[in-house]
Structure formats: C-alpha cells, structure tokens
Design brief:
This protein is an alpha/beta fold and 273 residues long. The protein contains 13 helices and five strands. Keywords: DNA-binding, Transcription, Transcription regulation.
Length: 273
C-alpha cells in the first residue's frame, strides 16, 4: 500500500479563473515545483514576485484561507512525509490506479508505438471497433484524433461492423479494442478486414497466438484482476493511457499543423447557430 501526499495545489488550480491577473501570477508561482528549503515568507515571496505582501494575503483569502500564514502552512505540508489515506476504500482505488500506471510504464514498447503511428499516417481511412467499455474508448479515440486531423470513425454496433467490411480495402486501417481479447464481434471484424487487405491493430490486455495471424500489430495494455468487470475502477483506464501515449506521438508528427487543426475544431465547437 502506497502513501499519498496531500497538497493544496489542486485547490489553487481550481481558483485560477476567478483570480485577477496579479493573483494569477501568484498562483502560477505556487503551482510550480519548489524545493522544500525555499523561503516562503511573505516578505521573501513578495520580493521575488514583485508584489505587495497585502496581495499575497488577498490571494490566500480568495483561496479559502484566513490569511497568508495559514495558506503557506498548508502549502508546506506537501513537502513533509506522505500520509496514508483515511479510508481503506479510498486507498484501494488509488492503489489500483497506481498499479496500472506502473504496469503501463513497464509494458510500453516505443518501437511498436512508432510502427502504429506509421500505420495511422499511411492509411486513408481508420475505423475503430469496440463493444461495451471498449466502445466508449473507441468514441473517445475518434473524438480526440479527429480534432488533430485524423480521418477516423468509431463503430460499436455489431451490424454496422459487419456491413462496414464491404467498404474496406488496402487503404484502410481497422483498430480493435478488447480488454479480454475475446470479444467475438471485434475479432471477427479484424479477421474480415485482414481478408480485404486492410491493416489491422488489436489493443488488448490478453494476447493470443491466434490474433497475431490476422493483426499487423498487437498493442498490450495493463491489466488487473477483474478489470473487465469494472468492480473497483473503470476498465477503460489502462486503454486510455495507451491511447494518450499514441496521441502524444501522433501529435508530434506535425505539431504546428495539428495544433492549427485543433484550434479550428475548437472554434467550430464554439460557434452558435
């Protein structure tokens, strides 16, 4: 069981939109990393930031503290030894997420990620198959990657997966998401895609020798006992970690252009009829 540090930084971050420009400057200072030996006295900080000590007091009060002294006491607590969470229920949840993060770090293969990026860039159309929790991840993946220029579609309906095979050819990439590696609709979709000459990738927590026959790449993600049932934490979490890593690599293939596309989609979402 791990110990976890209690920090007031999340509270500071939650207040940023309600702060004045001067107060935001103070907030960003405390959000940044600092050594525990740093002098956080009001006099030292005000001199460092070129603000008055009264400004520090107003900032502290806006964050919900009685004054700067109480604020800085709570802030410096995060530099002390970690403390166990007060509830076993909370501990179980945090420990589960930490376990999956550690496993994800251990399982990642950068060379495979690079090969997956090449497939995303080389194929003219991308389809993402998923059912249940994996289907929700498929929709999330579609939304995120469309916003940076990838032409893709998420398919979570059995009948549409079957009909979609008619549209597949050598220029397509089909990505299947299955925690168990046994979701028949997704696996059959990948098999049919391979027969039609499409490139195929399976994201799963359970590798099988059979899948390697009809998948160009099999990307594993971390697993935990009973993960697929979602009885402790969301079964989507380890898949989303892997998707985020691929997203980061894909973004770097042409960051300037993809950032411009992201901005265009952002503005399109803000438009009102």
């Amino acid at each position: 069981m791990a110990d976890y540090k209690i920090s007031i930084i999340p509270y500071i971050e939650s207040m940023v939109n309600q702060l004045t420009p001067l107060e935001k400057k103070v907030a960003q200072y405390f959000i940044a990393d600092h050594e525990s030996s740093t002098d956080f006295s009001s006099k030292a900080v005000s001199k460092r930031l070129f603000v008055s000590e009264a400004s520090l007091t107003r900032f502290a009060k806006k964050c919900g503290f009685s004054g700067y002294r109480e604020f800085i006491y709570q802030y410096q607590e995060s530099f002390t030894e970690s403390k166990p969470l007060p509830s076993n229920l909370m501990t179980n949840v945090f420990d589960s997420y930490q376990e999956l993060l550690n496993k994800s770090y251990s399982i990642i293969d950068q060379e495979k990620i690079v090969r997956i990026i090449k497939l995303l860039l080389s194929q003219k159309r991308v389809y993402i198959y998923g059912k249940g929790s994996s289907g929700l991840v498929a929709e999330e993946m579609k939304f995120r990657f469309m916003r940076i220029g990838l032409v893709c579609e998420a398919i979570t309906d059995n009948h549409i997966m079957q009909m979609n095979q008619v549209l597949l050819d050598e220029g397509c990439l089909v990505i299947g998401l299955s925690i168990s590696g046994q979701t028949s609709e997704v696996l059959n979709g990948l098999k049919m895609a391979k027969k039609r000459g499409s490139k195929t990738i399976l994201f799963t927590a359970n590798q099988t020798n059979e899948a390697s026959v009809y998948c160009d790449e099999i990307q594993l993600f971390a697993i935990k006992d009973n993960l697929s049932t979602g009885n402790i934490i969301s079964p989507q979490f380890p898949i989303l970690i892997m998707i985020d890593i691929i997203y980061a690599f894909f973004m770097e293939t042409n960051r300037k252009q993809r950032q411009e596309i992201w901005q265009d989609t952002f503005e399109a979402l803000q438009e009102k009829e």
